[in-house]
Amino acid sequence: MAPRPPKQPNVQDFQFFPPRLFELLEKEILYYRKTIGYKVPRNPDLPNAAQAQKEEQLKIDEAEPLNDEELEEKEKLLTQGFTNWNKRDFNQFIKANEKWGRDDIENIAREVEGKTPEEVIEYSAVFWERCNELQDIEKIMAQIERGEARIQRRISIKKALDTKIGRYKAPFHQLRISYGTNKGKNYTEEEDRFLICMLHKLGFDKENVYDELRQCIRNSPQFRFDWFLKSRTAMELQRRCNTLITLIERENMELEEKEKAEKKKRGPKPSTQKRKMDGAPDGRGRKKKLKL
Known about the structure:
It is found in: Nucleus. This protein is mostly helical. 58% of the residues lie in helices and 0% in strands.
């Protein structure tokens, strides 16, 4: 690794200092290397290694020290970044964006320890404006977008369950699953009905919901002698519920498409024309004569 000045400040890209600061620090580094007679080694991995080596060496050979004006500017710029944000704060901020989505700033602020909501709001605004300056931006964005995709999936599942449950006045007794060819041999429709209805009641995206669902099964008189269902683990219940959710989403989609097709078949509703005449049944009434 090429040498750096011993007393250069430790600035991180996630602290979002003004870009001009990095220009001045780079100039300082180049001059330091010139003073110690540093020679740039050739990088054999580069296709034009000789040319790249020559260009880097030229930068060092022509380097000049920072003048008084630039030194003053550097000190001023060093106060303009997020100096009170360290790597731990940054990692908490990224994980919070992954967990809650970039727009839920209220919950993101709660996740970053030691920072006020105002500080997190200010940092977030700058982060999204200048995040392309970060070295690992592709990795960071992939992490956040994976989390946001999970959030959207949860919203989609909640909507599907709300729609399905909403079709019945007494879903715990009336709900039917459209299995198609995916019925399976292990679970009965009565068990599946209870799983879906109770999952919806508990809140499917709640933490440890499948542990709670398992406990509800064990406490239910309905399944007092159902040893199969009572012996399922939380993970097995989750897998079964995921299968049922997929079936429900497919059913909802088919019903939605069927409804659209029926609406299209019926055609648009005929618009009733306003009759501007004097109210004759055929709409062809004559104008009333004015009495003089």
